Each structure stands twice: as C-alpha cells, then as structure tokens.
Amino acid sequence: MTGVETHSRTPQQAGAESSPANAGMILTATMLASSLPFIDGSVTNVALPSIGRDLHGDAASLQWVINAYLLPLSALLLIGGAAGDHFGRRRVLILGTALFAVASILCAASSDLTLLLAARALQGVGAAMLMPNSLGILGSAFSGESRGRAVGTWASAGAIASAVGPPLGGWLVGVAGWRAIFLINVPVALAAIVVAYRFVEESAEGEQPLDVSGAVLATLALGALTWSLTLWSSHHEGSAKTWAGLIAGIALLGLFVWVEHRRRTDAMMPLSMFASRAFVGLTLLTFLLYGALGGLLVLLPYLLIVGGGYTPMQAGMALLPFSIVIGAASRLMGRTTEKIGPRWPLTIGPIVTGLGFLVLVRVDPTASYWTSVMPGMVIVAIGMAGAVAPLTTAVLSSVDREHTGTASGFNSAIARTGGLIATAMAGAVLAQTGDALTSAFKAAAIVAAALAIASGCVAFVTLGSSEGQSG
Q1: 1, 9 in Cβ contact below 8 A?
Q2: Taking the CB of residue 253, how many other CB atoms lie within 10 A of it?
Q3: How far apart are CA 150 and CA 20, in angstroms?
Q4: Separation of alpha carbons 119 and 111, rounded Å
C-alpha cells in the first residue's frame, strides 16, 4: 500500500486490530460518496411519470431513463474496482464522484430525452468508479473487528440513503420538479470530494493489468440484450431488430466469456470462481431475486402515480416500509447466519419475498394504501431482510480467499444486471393505462413471485453439501 501519509499504517502493519487516525472522516467520505448511487437508484423511479410528461417520453423511453444508468454501472463495476487497485482508490473515488456530479448537472439541464439518457449513462460510469472504491478504501484503512464495524456502518448508511431517496425525491418532484432530484447530488458530491482529498490516504495494490477488452465486451453485450428486450416488451417481439439484438447480445456474451477464459487470472471475471457450485448457485439466486425486486420497484410507484393518482411524494412514502424493515432486520440476520449458515436464510428469505409479491397481486391503486399496498410491501421487505446479509456472507465464503473481492463485486454487478433486464422487460406494463395498467402490474407481480421462489429453491439445492466450500 502506498500513500501520502504513514501515521495510519503502522498499527495495521503490526497485524493488530486498528483504526486509522482519521477514521471518522474516512467513513464520512466513503458514506457520502456511496450515498449518491444509493439515493439515485431509488429516487428516479418516483420521477418517471413527470419526466415522461415533460420530455414527451413513451414507455420504451422511460425504461431507458433507468437502464441508461444501470447498463454502465452493471458492466463497469468490476473494472471500476480494478482501476482503483491500479491507479489508487482515493484517486478513482474522487474522479468517479466528480463525474457523477457533472453528469447530475447535465441530467437536470437536459432539454430532451436524448440528452437525459446520455447524462444518465455518465452517472452510471461515475457510480461504477466510486462504489467499489468506497468499500475498498475501508478495507485498506481498517483492520480486524474495526473493519467489520466500518463496513457495517457503511452498509447501514446505504440502507438509510435508499430509504430516504423515494420520499425525498417525491417531495422534490412535487415542489420543484423532477430536475431537482439530480441537483441534490451536487452538494453531497462536493462534500465527499473535499473530505476524501483531505483525510483519505491513497491506497493501491500494485500494477495489476486492467481488463479493458472484457469491460467493452460486457458493456456491448448487455447493451444489445437490453435494447432488444426493450423492443420486445414494446410489442416488437417479431421484428428483425429485436432478433438481431438478441443474437448480437448472445454472441457478444459468448465472446466475453472466451476473452475472460484467455485472460485467466487477469480477467475482470476469473472463470475459476465458477468451479464453486455454491458460487454458481448464488449468482443465479442473485440474478433471479434482484431481477424480480428491481422490476417491481420500478412498476409499483408508476402504478400508484398513474393509476392511483398518488402524488410523487406519496408514492415515495409508499416504498418507505421496505427500506425500514430491511435496515432494522439485516444486522440480526447477519448474526443469525453466523450461527446457522446461509442455506436456510437464503432459502426461506426469497420464498417469503415471493409470497409478498403474490400478496401484491391484490393491489388496487385506488383503494386504501394500508390494506392494498402495505401488507405486500412489508412481507417483501421481511423476505429480503432475511436474504441481504446472508447473501453477502455466502458469496464471500463460496470462493477462495484470493477471489473474495472480485466475487463480491461480481455479485453486485449481477444484482444490477437482474434489475437492468427486468426494467427492459417492463415496457409492456408501462405502456398500459387505466384498468389495463393494474392488470399488467398484477401479471408482473406473479412473474416476480415465481422468480423469487425459484431463487430460494436454487439456494436450497446449491448450498447443501457445498455450503461454504470453494470448489
């Protein structure tokens, strides 16, 4: 590890548990930076109807307001972490945060959808740079139990940011318009940059090669698949463009796997990780579960605003129980997983989540929120609370020690890819109005329930005798 200061390194080098001299400020910098994508990931959903009205967007365009951000974030998350290892984590964190702030200003200033989508893509690139390095900085600055406490605090801040996002965004849309949801990022980003520059010690792992070819192929493959699935969901399932996009996406995905195989240990996605049956199962579980969740969290506020006449703030508040329950229960589930292992939490949690989606089938956007929406949201939240912390633990224990960082980053990328694909397929719901919108949402809730329950079954099968093993 290299750095401009040495006062926080000596205890770590001695091998004892330690916190750096500026522990509080380091935590503040990483939490401020990482709160940007956490807030943005939840706040934009409640602004979609307003953006569509103002910029004359159809269902496919509204899907891309979400996916233009998720696409580069999903594809570049791993190389963003590798860039921090290569060039310095503080440097890449600051650059990513600055890019996110500039992109947020461009989002707020966008006069049409094309400019907004381009700015959203820049936000995704910035998020892919800052997210893995905010966590990497904590890993290099803290050691022993203090590292666990720091990471726990960082994760709790992310949960709080996600919880605050929808009601804050809804309130801003109501009083100042949708552009304000992007401008709130700027002061937070500036504060993160100043604190990181002054108090965070630079750290890097050496001259590790960057897998640029892998990152480009992953981006192109996900882009082609997302574009073709968006066309498919917009009632163009038989068009030549749809099939061409699907074929191109699958071919690029195959080429990506081949390149990663050739690069071996220098790959952004080392294929040796997939020698672990548990890791393969956890990857599939993550894709299914977060795909189901991501799709519903886009569709529910849209249904409430367009179909139920909710204000953006009311729609944001409707999602608040979800984050509150997860934030309150995740620490307990983390301790429980240490005692009984991740198999049963990752089996029961997703199945309960699926049952919550089934309860949401009875949603009537014109009926009382307390009897129509909230019961399903609380059950979904309880199920996800049972899965979030155990999933992180299981991923880290499913691969060799040398691959834990890569496995964690890859799992985060898979979670966002699941949401990306689900949002791409949500156009069939977003294109509806009136009673047809409610019916389409209910069909989507059934699909989400099936995916969540299937993910729990995957955990039960793959985390049996292989639980905690790496191959």
Answers
A1: yes
A2: 17
A3: 11
A4: 11
- Sign of torsion over alpha carbons 340, 344, 348, 351: positive
pLDDT band at 469 (very low <50, low <70, confident <90, very high): very low
Q: How far apart (Å, rounded) are the C-alpha atoms in residues 409 and 136?
A: 11
Instruction: Measure the CA–CA gap between 444 and 425, rounded to whole angstroms.
Output: 10
pLDDT of residue 268: 78
Rounded Cα gap, residues 3 and 91, in angstroms: 11
pLDDT in tens, 284-336: 999 999 999 988 888 999 899 988 999 888 888 888 888 788 777 766 776 67
Burial class (CB in 10 A: 0-12, 13-18, 19+), 224: buried
Q: How many C-beta neighbours within 10 Å does residue 180 have?
A: 17
Q: How far apart are CA 452 and CA 376, in angstroms?
A: 14
Q: What type of residue is 233?
A: S
What's 277's DSSP letter? H
Q: What is the Cβ-side half-sphere exposure of residue 69, based on CA atoms within 13 angstroms?
A: 27
Say how far apart CA 411 and CA 414 lie, in whole Å. Answer: 5
Q: Say how far apart CA 66 and CA 46 lie, in whole Å.
A: 11
Number of other CB atoms surrounding residue 400 within 10 Å: 14
Encoded tokens for 204: 């890097």
Q: Decide: helix, strand or coil at residue 467.
A: coil
**Rounded Cα–Cα distance for residues 155 and 279 (Å):** 22
Q: Report CA Rg, the chain.
A: 21
Q: Are 419 and 294 in contact (CB under 8 A)?
A: yes
Separation of alpha carbons 347 and 458, rounded Å: 8
Q: Which amino acid is at 90?
A: R
**Residues 356, 379 contacting (CB under 8 angstroms):** yes
- Other beta carbons within 10 angstroms of residue 166's beta carbon come to 28
State phi, psi for 17 to the nearest 5 degrees. -60, 135
**Residues 276, 278, 280: CA angle, nearest 5 degrees:** 75
Between the alpha carbon of residue 396 and those of residues 57, 108, 258, 267, the distances in Å are 42, 38, 25, 19
Q: Would the CA dihedral through 274, 278, 281, 286 be positive or negative?
A: negative
List C-alpha distances in Å: 389 to 337, 385, 432, 463.
8, 7, 36, 16
Q: Rounded CA gap, 411 and 186, in Å?
A: 29
The pTM assigned to this predicted structure is 0.80
Question: Residue 288 and residue 297: Cα distance in Å, rounded?
Answer: 14
How far apart (Å, rounded) are the C-alpha atoms in residues 360 and 372? Answer: 8
Quote the pLDDT of residue 101.
96
Q: What's phi and psi for 16, nearest 5 deg?
A: -85, 165
